[in-house]
Amino acid sequence: MSTRSRGERAGLTREQILDAALALADRAGLKALTMRRLGAELGVEAMTLYHYVPSKDALLDGLVERVFARALPLADADGDGAPDWQAMLRAYADALRGTLLRHPGVLPLAAARPAVTPATLDAVERGLGALTAAGFPLGAAVDALNSLSVFVVAHTAAEAAAEEGDATAPGRADWLAGLDAARYPLLTEAARTGAGADDAARFHAATTALITGFATTAGVPAHSSQTGPTTDD
Amino acid sequence: MSTRSRGERAGLTREQILDAALALADRAGLKALTMRRLGAELGVEAMTLYHYVPSKDALLDGLVERVFARALPLADADGDGAPDWQAMLRAYADALRGTLLRHPGVLPLAAARPAVTPATLDAVERGLGALTAAGFPLGAAVDALNSLSVFVVAHTAAEAAAEEGDATAPGRADWLAGLDAARYPLLTEAARTGAGADDAARFHAATTALITGFATTAGVPAHSSQTGPTTDD
DNA sequence: TCACGGATTCTTACGCCGTAAGTGTGACGG
DNA sequence: CCGTCACACTTACGGCGTAAGAATCCGTGA
């Protein structure tokens, strides 16, 4: 909104633009994130943004990468060795969910756009190291990491999507509780008794099931008993 | 494209419109699904569609409901009693994945729009019945069904999204295999050795892990040994 | 000192979108 | 036979992403 004469610099950065886009999407929703409006927020015309971003799609990709980049460093802040692969996966899942919830605007994007950046590659490499050290075959480790990531994003997105609107909207608890109890006895009972269920607890239970399932199907003990690193590297 | 004079009926139906929209989205992608183009495919102006659909968002919701409606009836075609809750969940997961893969156009929508229709409610009620009969607490059964649905959609969406474009695009196998092997030893090895990995096998492994995890965390035996229905109902 | 060239920004414009509002036309019940 | 109503069309508005080009500022070498 600052008054600048033509040609005067606004001092923009790709980082600033992504920050503003993230804030706008979180505040007003994805549909409100338009190039014109984003430019207006930065005191600049829409076309100016194209000097920092090749297209709007690229900008959206940048948003997803940004959110993942904020989530990943936390995932392995617990230690250096491979103390407990399950705890590592759990920490990763919790960190990713927390970051996604803080940026509900990009949640629909994250579900459809895989983010590939050096930061995510580093994190995947570390995760593979921990899982293979615990006895996972490499292929199973890749599948486990991929499945967990996908699951966390999707579960969190569903959680956030259910949050908007009042509880009487179709599909929400109060609406389900008002269904025909003769036709849907279990559904209505669940909606009534579980109305106050904690989203975090649901998420925890679901990720625990998935992580536990990894251990069982890969034939790996629940805890890696060897505390030290393996002999090579 | 048929020549009709003004006011002459085209004989449209909401069903026809949804069918055409689904076909168009699958053929040309979601971005190509516009009201004008959809109308053109049906030999009608765009505004005419608004006599059958209140808005484009409602049309998209209809597409998701349609896809889920096609997937669900298959889920319980195996029997009447509750022979094996794990087999039931597996059949549901496989049926849903198959239907979603047949309609890649709506996959991004399914990830963001929960479909609530009588058909889905019936399916959920049946699923809850099977799980509680197998020993699941009601709350755990709800979480399990919800988690599985969300996971199947997300995993399939990721699978389909990775399919488009050549294998050398960022994030794809060939691209990963070309990374710095010194920095990403496990990642590059996985990309090279697992290049021919089967998507269906990955999906099967992941859903098996999740379903197995449900059994473990809910304290339910892997197979419900009682073949007959319970005494009530 | 000053011209110059690249970086940055603005202006204009095009074709597309979803859809509000109003107009015409055919089919059908009285 | 005629109203009436469902169906289809026309027109129009505001907004979108972005291509093309003009204007301005600033660092640099002559």
Describe the structure.
- The structure is a homodimer of 233-residue chains.
- Chain A is mainly α and 233 residues long.
- Helix content of chain A is 58%, strand content 0%.
- Among the domains of chain A are: 14-53, Arc Repressor Mutant, subunit A (Orthogonal Bundle), CATH 1.10.10.60; 72-164 and 196-218, Tetracycline Repressor, domain 2 (Orthogonal Bundle), CATH 1.10.357.
- The first copy, chain A, has helices at residues 14-28, 35-41, 56-71, 85-102, 107-110, 118-133, 138-163, 173-177, 185-193, 199-218.
- The first copy, chain A, is flat, with a radius of gyration of 22 Å.
- The termini of chain A are far apart.
- Chain A binds a DNA duplex (30 and 30 nucleotides) through residues 4-10, 12, 34-36, 44-48, 50-51, 55-56.
Keyphrases for this structure?
homodimer, 233 residues, mainly alpha, Arc Repressor Mutant, subunit A, Tetracycline Repressor, domain 2, 10 helices, flat, disordered C terminus, DNA-binding
Q: Summarize this, please?
A:
Helix content of chain A is 58%, strand content 0%. Chain A has helices spanning 14-28, 35-41, 56-71, 85-102, 107-110, 118-133, 138-163, 173-177, 185-193, 199-218. In chain A, helix 4 (85-102) packs parallel to helix 7 and helix 6 (118-133) packs across helix 7 (138-163).
